[in-house]
Amino acid sequence: MQGCSEFDLIARHLSRLGTHRDDVLQGVGDDAAIVATTGEPLAMALDTIVQDVHFPADLPARCVGWRALAVNLSDLAAMAAKPCWGLLGLTLPAMDEAWVEQFAAGLHALACQHELALIGGDITRGPLSVTVQVTGRLPHQPLRRAGVQPGDRIWVSGQLGEAAAGLARWQADGSATIDEPVVQRFLYPTPRVALGLALQGLATAAIDISDGLLADAGHLARQSDVALVLDSTRLLAQVSDAVSYEAVLRGGDDYELCFAAPPDADKAVKQAAQATQTLVTCIGQADFGAGVWLDNERVDLRTAGYQHF
């Protein structure tokens, strides 16, 4: 269908497929699904990354392995889930043991940081792509995209736009090196798992920023049925010599958290950030209404971030 987006496809054809079981507590439409068990509920997420779509062909194999897991852990972070298990689907154009060795090293390094066990999967032949499915425990109430209340403050973690700047630097003229800070932010995203867990009981809602701040803030606004009013002055403070304002707003690949919390939680949010050694910035507030607003202008969410189709 002409003009059909990724989210249109999901809503029209896939979202109803998970609604017929009573143990599905959260189905399609959030950063992760939630299923009931005899013990703690489980959060489950899956993402695919494809060469020349989600990462450049010349990206080192170790970075590909790290990123493939990081994008999934970021989804668990947004749900305040503790990572436990993972499954891997690896599609290779040809047998290349040296590449797989380095890929596995990158994936293993990040998995060890979060005590995640890779317990199965599949390898097949075809264009290079990686699918990782992760499952985590939910020791407390999960964070969801729905839950923002009018009056809540809107926060982001980290430094937005650095990953987009790193990708641009990597692709610019071949002179970039792996140890440049913005390049590092693209090659090795930092999933905010510890911060997500620390925000349980403080934040009213959360989402991970994968497609760009404005686009992902739009999901929070839509699913919470509120307007998010963002402050350009606070966002401009994230701009630097290496990072443009456009990258902060629409860059994508940040894998930071955008979350909401009531004003009386300001001190506790800052303490949670300090305890997890994470930078957090208040960038606006929620109000009655709909959509995302940058100062007094409503954002066109159709062009607000990365489009998969």
Concise structural overview:
It is built from ten helices and 13 strands.
Secondary structure elements and pairings:
Layout: H1 6-14, E1 24-26, E2 33-35, E3 42-50, H2 61-78, E4 82-92, H3 97-113, E5 117-125, E6 129-137, E7 153-157, H4 162-172, H5 181-187, H6 193-198, E8 205-209, H7 213-224, E9 227-230, H8 232-236, H9 245-250, E10 256-261, H10 266-275, E11 280-287, E12 291-294, E13 297-298
Parallel strand pairs: 4-5, 9-12
Antiparallel strand pairs: 1-2, 2-3, 3-6, 4-6, 7-10, 7-11, 8-10, 9-11, 12-13
Helix content: 25-40%
The CATH level-2 architecture of the largest domain is identified as Alpha-Beta Complex
Q: What share of the residues does DSSP label as strand, in percent?
A: 25-35%
Radius of gyration: 19 Å
> From N to C, what is the helix and strand string?
HEEEHEHEEEHHHEHEHHEHEEE
Q: In the CATH hierarchy, what is the superfamily of the largest domain?
A: PurM-like C-terminal domain
CATH class of the largest domain: Alpha Beta
Structural class comes to: alpha+beta
How many E-type strands? 13
So how many helices?
Answer: 10
Mean pLDDT across residues: 90
Shape: globular
Termini gap: 11 Å
